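Z., the sequence and structure:
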Amino acid sequence: MRRAFLIVLDGLRRDMVTPELTPTLMRLRERAEAFDAHRSVFPSATRVVSSCVSTGCYPAKHELAGNTMVLIEDGRLVAHDVGHPGFLQHKRKVTGRTLARPTMAERVAGIGGAAIYSNVSPGAAYAHDPDGHGTVFHRAGSFGPGRRPVTGWTADRITADAKGDRELAERFVADCVLGAAKPALGVLWLAEPDSSSHAYPLGSEAQLEAIRSADATLALVLEGIATARGQGDDILTLVASDHGHQTVKGVIDVDAELVKAGLKASMESGDVVAASNGTSVLVYVHPDHAARTAEIGAFLRSQPWAGETLGVDRMHEIGQAPLHGLAFAVSMAADEDANAHGIPGRSFAAKPAAGKPDRMNCGQHGGLARYEQSPFLMIAGGTFAAGTSRSTPTSAVDLAPTVLTHLGVTFDGLDGRALQTG
């Protein structure tokens, strides 16, 4: 039986995959093909990457633009935290669809189905199967086909930390990898080391311990997969991260800066909305105020905290589209300087929504800077050559076509390519 498993160690940047921190990953590298130029997407944020992984498409096609994004509702710009459990169902009411492209869960529904075990935000978890073709296990609510609530074990007590990762992984192995149901696709998405990278400085002992813990949890999963392979299953194993991290060197309230410049009426106004995405920001302009767009662009490009600023004419370069008034995509300014623990890569961060902390000197991501765009990827099984590496660029959108090719599922219209073909 052909099966595929995707295990994600959220937020682990590629240069932190070392013999000292990640012995399991180093052993895996000896029997997998490694992709040494693997990149995230934009924004390099988990809810966006989850949507790109599940659909094989960039945001311009699947239409989930950011961890925070805007919808035009009743003629107004309305900002949303995509991590909210009900966001995708709300988006369906507003736009007529959750994601605008089929997910892997939908594509494999007829050949064994998909099971997703996620320990990150609800929005990121449900982006793998928002329309209920398979099964999603998450603390905010677990759903089976038809989005019917799961009975029995529901992941409701799983915590978003190393302990919760371990418990979720044990369940994943017992039920998804070795259980009788044998779904064609199994996804396990761990919270660490991302949770700790946001809470502690990169390179601090607490952050490094989170990496070690995630690597140890991975060992448990790989052992289960080896057992399933020994029982005759033809398994493709993809182990990856979704993005890396930069150190936050300053926090900028972009809405306040626009108000101060006279380009936004007030902090509460809906003429212009800056949606923070960590070390990036999506700036939306209401159609009634489109005449202000050029001035806003000139302002953004003149600011020392703004790095690359892409308007409507260049959004296609990063897989975005001017939907719902999106006028500018800004990757916050970054440098290569090291933090207090010797970890290089610092960025400005856009001030997050009310109630979320500003974590100076801790990890953050979302933009196009070097280290946040340096996740890792290793693939074992199928035609992938053990102990080799590939230097050609790859991206999160390549995972879906790679999985679907292994499972024998035909597809078209994806942005990514099957990595079996080189």
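DSSP finds twelve helices and 22 strands in the chain. The radius of gyration is 21 Å.

Let me know what you think.
H.
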